[in-house]
Specification:
This protein has about 110 residues and is mainly β. It is built from no helices and eleven strands. About 0% of the residues lie in helices and about 50% in strands. Strands 2, 4, 5, 6, 9, 10 and 11 form a seven-stranded mixed β-sheet that branches. The chain is globular.
Length: about 110
Amino acid sequence: QVQLVESGGGLAQPGESLRLSCAASGFKFSIVPMTWVRQAPGKGLEWVAGIYGDGSDADYADFVKGRFTISRDNAKNTVYLQMNSLQVEDTGFYYCTLGAANWGQGTQVTVSS
């Protein structure tokens, strides 16, 4: 079955960087788009970024453009989210998703001084 396991979250200060990883299994990873979604405390879900199956193109929410980079290594069945210039507003749980139906357990990111 589909499994998505996120890692790499933690505590960072404003301006610092974190790199999230999502290890995928149970499906043909290299042919499907993957996305990152987040949920801030007390708020709804926000789409953050998405990437094509072959990695040829990616798209970002306006609030992370220029700061976050989504990438993937199809040989490792892993998708990444490089988060630079972190802001307090980036605090929340980050999930990688395969479509709308398959989500990982999430990894927590806390940005605080």
